[in-house]
């Protein structure tokens, strides 16, 4: 430690007295004395003058991550529900936009192939309920005939965090085609026909079903890579995939040479209740 005074850097303006003082302190392994305040020095600012940190602004930077995590959890819940005839995929450009298609397999709207967009609010799940819009518009009492938007607020008057979920909106969209509701309609003509002229209503429904089937091969209105599009059957492209899906899997034989703990084998011989009786 005797060489500390030789290696220490002295700032500009340090006098010989300062150097001798620091040299002596270095040899005694002591910190230098705090210099006396001079007229030109500014006293340190008291702690109370430091502005408090805005915790809300610091948390705001994580908002996008929380949103994407919540939407991922919703998408996983949707997979577990396995809603029949409902297929959705998030947009490649925004997690708040999901593309979907609904296949109706029975009832008045049987054979309908209805494409839709699910639009999720930016402040989800604390905001308003999501919007669901059909393309093209479907002839239905609670679907707007111009915009194609489904009256989702009929079922979700106020979106409740941790209670309402996106899969419930999709389930509701499916159910409206099996149970017709004409109260407070968005399409007054459809509601009136359903109540007063059922045959004409069925005719108009057939028209909207045929239109959906006719337009299913049309290019998507969006250039999003995840936008749902249909192509006509091509054996060279789709045949092998179809056979893979429809061919039942052959159950694999149990390998008796595997470890009993991993294979689930028992050490009890059939017909014997004594344990470890197997050779």
From TrEMBL:
Start-end of Polar residues biased regions: 23-36
Pfam families for the chain: UQ_con
Domain of life: Eukaryota
Domain UBC core: 66-214
Protein name: UBC core domain-containing protein
CDD domains registered for this protein in UniProt: UEV_AKTIP (cd23814)
Disordered as annotated region, ranges: 1-54
